[in-house]
Amino acid sequence: MTLLLLTRHGATDAVGKIICGQLPGYPLNEQGRAEAALLARSLSSLNIAAAYSSPLERARETAATIAAPHGLSVVEAEPLSDIDFGQWNTRAIADLESEDSFRRFNQHRSFCGIPQGERVSRVQARVVDALADIAIRHAGATVVVVSHGDPIRLALAFYLGLAVDHIQRLEVGTGSVTALELNDADATLRTMNARNLDSLGSL
Fold it and tell me: Which domains are seen in the chain, by residue range?
């Protein structure tokens, strides 16, 4: 059994406002740095064997903060990156909500693609493959994996048998940890959207 601490990066100035996807240049803001520091304190007592991160700055910063008390270097993994939002990159979410293509995508993600962007099915496949590889590499250990909201939701949908169209029902806030146990036969969700020691419970 491997315990994966699926961690969404801390807040940035873009969260909830604009689509940034895989674009660089969106570091943690003050709130995001505080969220990362809280996670680092909450996870400091655990025996964490490794820390993996999306290569995007906001994820790397979060991972580095969590890894520091354990003396770990962060391993960057491209498959953990956010969705490539194509033509929607840098667009304001409020503006996109009036466009039919964006509304269709959010209602039927399993079928509707992103203009010049990445299909959700491919995002799910690359993230799940990456997590499976990490679980094999660190069998029996606890590993921090810092990624982004949608990739984490897509991974959870795969392991819990949920329809992709319903992933927005899963709350994965900034600076949160979702603990997922993986073994050869199945997966177990230990905790979801936890932010501090009390909500993390006895991991």
Answer: 2-83+119-200 (3.40.50.1240)
